[in-house]
Amino acid sequence: MDFFQGMADNFSNLWTIIGDLTVTGLTQGAIYALIALGYTLVYGVLQLINFAHSEVFLVGAFGSVMVWGWLGYSSGAAAVPPLLVVIGMLLLGAVTASIFSGGTALIIERVAYRPLRRKNAPRLIFLITAIGASVAISEIVGLLVDRKVVSTPALVHQKFQVWFDPSDIGLNINSFGITNLQIGIVLCAIGMWLALDLFLNRTKFGLGIRSVAQDEDTAALMGVNKDRVIMLTFLLGGLAAGVAAVLYNLKFPQITFDMGFLLGIKAFTAAVLGGIGNLRGALVGGLVLGLVENWGAGFFGNDWMNVTAFVVLVVVLMFRPTGILGDSLGKARA
Amino acid sequence: MLLEIEDLNVHYGRIQALHGISLTVDEGEIVALIGANGAGKSTTMRAISGLRRASAGRILFGGDDITRMRADRRVVAGISQAPEGRGIFPGMTVLENLTMGAYTRKDKAAVAADQQRVFELFPRLAERRKQPGGTLSGGEQQMLAIGRALMSRPKLMLLDEPSMGLAPMLIRQIFDIILEIREQGTTILLVEQNAQQALSRADRAYVLETGAITRSGSGSDLLVDPAVRDAYLGVA
Amino acid sequence: MTLTDKLRTAGQKIRTADEKRASFIQGARGRWHDLPKAWRIAAALAGVVVLFALPNLYIPGIPFRTDEVDGGNSFGFVLSTIAIYVLVAIGLNVVIGMAGLLDLGYIGFYAVGAYSVALFGSPQSIVATKFPWLICVPIAIALAMVSGVILGTPTLRLRGDYLAIVTLGFGEIVRLIAVNAEFTNGTSGLGGMPTPPGTWPAGTELEGTKLFSVNDSRPFYWLTLVLIFAVIFGVKQLERSRVGRSWLALREDEDAASLMGVATFQFKLWAFAIGAGIGGLSGAMFASRNGHFGSNSITLLLSIMFVAAVVLGGQGNILGVTVGTVLAFYLPERFRSFADKRDLIFGLALILIMVLRPQGLLPSRRRARELADRRQEAKEATIVG
C-alpha cells in the first residue's frame, strides 16, 4: 500500500503545482521548439541528423552575451535599462546571435558535410564528423571563456502580467502567474514558426528548398542549385537557433560552454516527437516535451526531469517514429 | 546544330552503359531515340541534362561545350527535361510544380503568360491547379511534366517516354501537343518505346541498341526499314 | 597566393601524404603475408611479449611512458585504462563494425557491468551479497547482455541514425539513474570492490601480498590483455561463422539480406547482446581496477569517444579499432600540456580524418572497397562545382 500511497502523494503534489509547471514547461518548450526547427529543416532536405546543431545555438548564445558586454550590459549592471534601450539591445542581440549561429551553421555544412556529400559517404560518417564539429566548437567556446560559467545580463524586468488563483473556482491548485518574458518567449517561437512556414510556402527560395526535399534530381532539372539550397537550409536553422539563444539568455541567468549537448538532444527529441521534417511538428513537439518534462519533474522530483525527456524520446521512437504529426516537408516517408 | 553529341561514353560502376554515341539535333526538329528497355535511352537523356556524368566524349549545345556543366546551369542555357517517371513533386500543387519549371526565370509577367499558355494547352491542368501533384492521374502527370518543362522557355526540350502507361487515345493527344510545341518554336528530342508513334511524328530518329547507335534516318524511312519493323514495330 | 589557394595546396599535400601512408600500409600487409609462417609466428610472439613487458619497459631517450612526463599518471594505470578501453572498442566493433549498428550509448552497458560488480561485490551496496570477483564478473556480463536484449528488442527495427539517437538516450538514462538512484549512491559511488584472486609469487618484491589491488594497476593490465586476446579469438570465430556472414549481409544491404531469408532482427539482437556482454566485462574490469565506481565515470562524451575511436581506426578491422582507441586515449595522457585542448584537437582530427578517409586509418579491406565504390558512384553520377 505504501507504493500506492506514495504515488497518490506524488500526484497530489503534481496537481497543486501544475499551474506553475505548465507555464514553465511551455516556456522551455518554446526554446526547444526554436532549436528543433533547425533539426527538422536540415533533416527534411538531407535526411541528415545535424548533430552539431546544438553548437549552432551555443555560439549564438555566447555571441550575443559578448556583444551586450561590449556595450556595457553585462550581468553586473545594477538596474534594468530603460525600455527603449532594452528593445534596442534585444534587437541587437537577436541580430548578433543570428549572425553567429547562422555563420556557424554554414561553416559546419561547408567543413563537415559537403566534402562527404561529394564522396557519397555513408550516413554514419556524417554523424561522426558532426560529433567532431560539435566537440570542437564547444571546446573552442570553452577555451575562450576559460571553461567558466558566464552570467547573462538582466535585460528584461520580469513581472507578472497575469495572475491566476484556481482556488477561486474551487480547484485545489496553487496560484500561479505568467510573466511578460514567458509570454514573449512563446510568442517568439510561434512567430518564428509562422515566418519560416510562410518563407517555405510562399517564396521562391522556399519552393527551391521544398523541391530538393521532395526530389533532388528533378529539382536540378528545374535549375535549382542544390548546394545553394542546402546552405540556405542550414542558414535558416541557424537563424531560428540564434533567436532561441537570445531568449535563453533572457530567461536563464547563466550559460556554459557545454550546455549545448543536453539542449540539443532535447530539441532533437522535440523534433522527433512532433514528426521530424515537419515545421509545425517541431513547434508542437517542443511545447509537448517542455510540458511532459516539467510535469514529470513535478511527479517524480526534479532529479528525474531529464530522465523523463529521454524516456519520451525512446518511447516515441519505438512506437511512433514518425512523431505526432508525421513528416511533411518532403513527401511522406515510411 | 543546336545539339551535338560526339562519342559519348557513360559508366555505371564497372558497367558501361553508353559506348561512344554520336548524334545531332538541328534547330526546330523533332528527333526520336528508340530502342528496347535498357538500351541506354534514358542514360543518354540524363547525360544531356547533366544528371549523369560523361566518362568520355563531348556534348555541345548551341556550339558551346556543356559536357562538364552542372545540371542546373544547363536549364539556364536552354535545356529542359520531362524526366522518366515524370518527376512530379508530389507535395506541391499543380501551380507550384509549374512555378518550379520557371525557377530560373525572373520575368514575372512573362512567366504568368506562359502559365496561361500551358493551361490553354492542357485544360485539365487548369481545373486541378490547386491539387497536389501526387494525386494526379498518370496522364495528368505527364501533361504537367511537359507543361512544366515548357515553363523555362527552353530551346531544347527532352521528353523521356511521354507515352509510358497512357491509353492509346491519350498517347495520340500527347503527340499532337508535342507537334504543337514544335510549331511554337521549341526543338524536341524524345525517347520512346512506342516506336510507331515516335517514328511517324519525328523528323529524324536514331535506333539505340545496348548502348550504341545502330541505325539512323528520317522517321518515315525507319518506319519502313525491315530490321526496325522486325525489332520495334511488332510486325513481321 | 590567396587564402583559398593556400588552403587548397595544404589540402593537396595532406592528401598526398595520406596516400603515401595508405600505400605503405598496403605494402606492409603484403610483405607480412609474404614472410614464412615460422617468422610470422615468432614476430607475433615477440609482439605479445613486448605488450606484457610494456609496464616495466624503459627506453632511454624515448620518453613514451606517461610517468616520464610532468604530472603524468602511473604508466601501469594508464596502460590498464587503455587496455580496458580497447576491450570496449572490440565489443563496440562487433556492434558497429560487424553488424553495422550505430550505438552511441554503449557506455550504458559498460555501466551496467561496473555497477553489477559494485552491487554484488561491494560491502557498501544495499544488496551486500559480497560475492567474490569470480562470481561477480559472469553476473556483470549476463546482466549487460540482458540489458542489451531489453534495449535492442524494441529499438533494432529503427533506421540507422534513429537507432543512434535512441541508444544515446538509453546511455543518458543509465547515467541519470546512476546519478540519482539510491542503490548507486550517486557521484560518491560504491567502494571496496572485489578483486581477482591471487598473490604475488615467491621471489617478487611484494611476495605474498594481494596481486590485484588499487596500489598497482599492472596486474589488471596483464589480465585485461589476456581477456583481450580471448575476446578477439572468440570474435574471430564468430565472424567466420554463420552469424558473422549474416552480419556482413545485413550491413551491406539489409533489405536484400532479409529477402534472402536472413533473420535480420534476430542477428542484430545477437550483435547487440554480444557487444553488450563485452561492454559489461570491460565495465567490470574498470570498476575492480579502480576499487570504486561512481556516476562520474559515465559520461556521454566518453561513450561518443568510443564510437569515434572505432570509426577513426577503421571499423570492422580489429587492429584498426585497437589503434584508434590507443591513439585516442594514449596521446592525451602522454602530451599533458595539451590536456586542456585535447577534446578540441580530437574533434578537429575527427573531421579531418573522416573527410579525407571515411574508411578510417586502418580499414578492413572489405570496408575500404565498399567506400571506394560509393565514391566512384558519386563521381560518375553528378557534376559538381
TrEMBL record, chain B:
ABC transporter domain location: 3-235
Coiled-coil annotated residue ranges, if any: none
Annotated family: Belongs to the ABC transporter superfamily.
InterPro entries documented for this protein: AAA+_ATPase, ABC_branched_ATPase_LivF/BraG, ABC_transporter-like_ATP-bd, ABC_transporter-like_CS, BCAA_Transport_ATP-bd_LivF, P-loop_NTPase
A Pfam family the protein falls into: ABC_tran
Alphabetized SUPFAM superfamilies for the sequence: P-loop containing nucleoside triphosphate hydrolases (SSF52540)
GO terms for biological process, alphabetical: L-amino acid transport
Molecular functions (GO terms): ATP binding; ATP hydrolysis activity; branched-chain amino acid transmembrane transporter activity
Keyword annotations of the record: Amino-acid transport, ATP-binding, Nucleotide-binding, Transport
The protein, known as: Branched-chain amino acid transport system ATP-binding protein
Keyword Nucleotide-binding: yes
Matches recorded under PANTHER family: HIGH-AFFINITY BRANCHED-CHAIN AMINO ACID TRANSPORT ATP-BINDING PROTEIN LIVF
Matches recorded under CDD domains: ABC_TM1139_LivF_branched
Keyword ATP-binding: yes
Highest classification ranks of the organism: Bacteria, Bacillati, Actinomycetota, Actinomycetes, Micromonosporales
Automatic annotation (TrEMBL), chain C:
Keyword annotations from UniProtKB, A to Z: Cell membrane, Membrane, Transmembrane, Transmembrane helix
Main location as per UniProt: membrane
Keyword Nucleus annotated: no
GO MF term list: branched-chain amino acid transmembrane transporter activity
UniProt membrane topology term: Multi-pass membrane protein
One Pfam family this sequence matches: BPD_transp_2
GO (cellular component) term, any one: plasma membrane
Record keyword Aminoacyl-tRNA synthetase present: no
Residues passing through the membrane, by range: 38-59, 74-95, 107-126, 132-152, 220-238, 269-287, 299-332, 344-362
Subcellular location: Cell membrane
Name the UniProt record assigns to this protein: Branched-chain amino acid transport system permease protein
Organism, scientific name: Phytomonospora endophytica
